Amino acid sequence: MSIFTPDTLYDLLPAVYRLRDADEGEPLRALVVVLAEQAGIVKADIDRLYDNLFIETCEEWVVPYIGDLLGVRNLHVFDADAFSQRAHVANTLRFRRRKGTATMLEQLAFDTTGWRARAVEFFDVLATTQYLNHLRPHNLRTPDLRATAALDLVGTAFDTAAHTADVRRIASGGIRHNIPNVGLFLWRLQSYAVPRRQARDLGDGRFTVHPLGVDAPLFNRPQTEVEITHLAEEINVPAPLRRRPLYDELEARRQALAEGRTPMFAYFDDRADAAHPPVFQLFVDEARDGDAWLPVSADEVMVCDLSGWNDAGWTRPAASKTYHVPQPDGTTAPVSMPVRAVVDPVLGRVAFPASETPGVVHVSYAYGFSADLGGGPYNRRASLDADLLGAAGWQVGVGRAATLAALGVAADGTRFFETLTDAVVAWNGQTESDTGVIAVLDNASYEETLAGPSRIELGEGRRLLVVAADWPGLAEAGTVEPDERVAHVRGDISVVGTADAASDAPGELTINGLLVEGNVTVEPGYLGLLAFDHVNVGGVTVEAAAAGPNAELRLRLGRTISGPVVAPEAIREVCVTDGILLAELDGGVRGFVLAGALDGSTVGPPATVERSTFFGGVRVVELTLASESIFTENVDVERLQRGCVRFSFVPPSSRTPRRFRCQPDLAFATRADELGVESGLLPAAERRRIRLRVVPGFTSTRRADPGFAQLGPACPDEIRTGAEDGSEVGAFALLKQPQREANLRATLDEYLRFGLDAGLLFAT
């Protein structure tokens, strides 16, 4: 407690002055209150200065200064939201004590980049004639073909097979196995843990973990390494799960239980006091014990390959498996163990035997992706409008009956609903507040179409937020917690603005954190704002009409993954920030992602695009600004006298306003300078070579893949470092990945042993 309170300071004055002050109406006390307030500010500043002496408690701006005292220099400093150098500075002295060791290099990579890493000294896996006083029995020239688990890891960071030497340097690219080579394998994708998400029912006892019904790999939940001397293992990195280790663990576990032994736990530690949760858990028909959800025991789950479940003749898995238990007389006794479910972690598929036909299946698991984008189980507080939340006088929750019961509330029809349709109808009919919040409380799939009578209606001055959020938001206005909620809407959503055309305050709708499988349509009317924050949506359509409605409509997509955005020229603007727009392939050619019609026959509205990736064509009336973005297909803009395109990739045949430091134009100009000719006189052969080389390359362009829209290893440096601050161009510019890589390369020389050569190898 501070000693500088008004009463404490006032009591220090002589009593005679306090008595006279009381007679005068206490002007002296008022002065003491001001002095106490300023003294408190000074004390807080002194406390803050003390905290800033230590790397663990200092403010972010102090980190580079403490690093400078330790000689940590030549590092890029960027927004702490992207990554902080605090851990690197804190561990600097530990690094120097362990200089040159593999475990130290591994920790250095993690602290410098924020990417999980594994250091591999390749001389340890070279095929050599071994010295008898230093035998390495694990390093055999010929791999054991029966060791399927080891063979599955050949070519990865955990490869133990012996290789012949390659005398080239690892820095030359792709070269690994040489005596001085040290490889730092880096996992750039993040693992996002999703608690109890509803799986997609495909019928016949088949489910996909991904709610859209597509194949998507499950990811490991990386377990923390507690010591700097620990070398990362497969269980410590955010990598896609493999079938073999999971199968082996569960088989060994069932065998141990059949024999009465205590099983070993690694990926599936489901004990109550476990330090890490299982990599995935199944929940069938929302079974609960009080407030606790009851998962299917890992003892009753089998891991196998389900790639053939669409083939003719595929049968559902068996409901049990027999294990043989050794007996004292040397014989074995069969013990049958139940199998309630079969899981394929590589494809994200779940199958049930004929004896088990669940109605609803939930899965706790982790998926991989590059960044906090498109919605997910991450912190989305900063994306919420604090003013809207503070003014929300009408709040309701949406959840399944089991979800609401677990929260200790009843679906009384006034504040809690089991369907989005009921919540929207209640919003349209209520008159108590012009500002409302509909919070989806669970990770269920809502198979509903919000159209017709249940469409979202927004009159003059009315604002609505539909958000996937945790429970506390309904207890008190302005306290929603948008974490761990990834609700899924299986259907279309329609919204209409019912304000008068002359209104100064047309309605506004914000959608945050939802996966909308269908299309969001704005019907003719007068709407002021349709905003998507951290949303994954099938597409957005603004219906056109002869009367020119929605003239003041602003479409805003922030950190959103969306299908085509179709809007007439008449609306006010479309703004896309840190987002991805994707058009479906038609005969190998992508359609339009932003235009007045799906086929691009009419122009779309004025657009502003920042740090985004567009997989499809763009046709708009005006491109107010396009900055640090990738357009994989042609861009056609009608008004060329306004707006600009900067630090972006735009196909050469595009029709855009003036461009500044865009690719491949900049590559053309650079090559022309090298040849000493005018840019327009660059030989056709040179232009063709540059056009073929300077194109964005992606890990994947399939929406459900972990590496979706991530720049691939073959992507040219002009795009990987083409943003204004030297980061990559496109939707993941926010990650500052080139700066992280540069920071790691800048520090490696200081910590490598003499004669060694290090290379960076991206595992994901």
Structural commentary:
The structure is a single chain. Strands 18, 19, 21, 22, 24, 26, 28, 29, 31, 34, 36, 37, 39 and 40 form a 14-stranded parallel sheet that branches. The chain has 16 helices and 43 strands. With 764 residues, the chain is an alpha/beta fold.
Features:
twelve-stranded parallel beta sheet, 14-stranded parallel beta sheet
Q: How can the largest sheet be summarized?
A: 14 strands, parallel
Helical proportion, percent range: 10-25%
Compute the CA-based radius of gyration.
30 Å
- Tell how many strands the DSSP assignment holds: 43
Q: Which oligomeric state applies?
A: single chain
What gross morphology would you assign? Answer: globular
C-alpha end-to-end distance: 50 Å
Write a concise synopsis of the structure shown.
The protein is an alpha/beta fold. It is built from 16 helices and 43 strands.
Topology (elements, then pairings):
Elements: H1 6-11, H2 15-23, H3 27-51, H4 63-69, H5 86-90, H6 92-97, H7 102-113, E1 116-121, H8 148-151, E2 181-187, E3 190-198, E4 200-203, E5 206-208, H9 243-259, E6 281-284, E7 288-289, E8 292-293, E9 301-303, E10 320-326, E11 332-338, E12 341-344, E13 349-351, E14 361-369, H10 386-391, E15 394-398, H11 401-406, E16 416-417, H12 420-429, E17 435-440, E18 445-446, E19 456-458, E20 463-468, E21 488-489, E22 493-497, E23 507-512, E24 515-522, E25 527-533, E26 536-542, E27 554-558, E28 561-562, E29 565-566, E30 573-577, E31 580-582, E32 585-586, E33 589-590, E34 592-595, E35 607-610, E36 613-615, E37 617-620, E38 623-627, E39 630-631, E40 635-637, E41 644-646, E42 659-660, H13 665-675, H14 684-693, H15 717-720, H16 737-751, E43 757-762
Parallel strand pairs: 2-43, 9-12, 15-16, 15-17, 17-20, 18-21, 19-22, 20-23, 21-24, 22-24, 23-25, 24-26, 25-27, 26-28, 26-29, 27-30, 28-31, 29-34, 30-35, 31-36, 34-37, 35-38, 36-39, 37-40, 38-41, 41-42
Antiparallel strand pairs: 1-2, 3-14, 4-5, 5-13, 6-14, 7-8, 10-11, 12-13, 32-33
Helix pairs in contact: 7-16
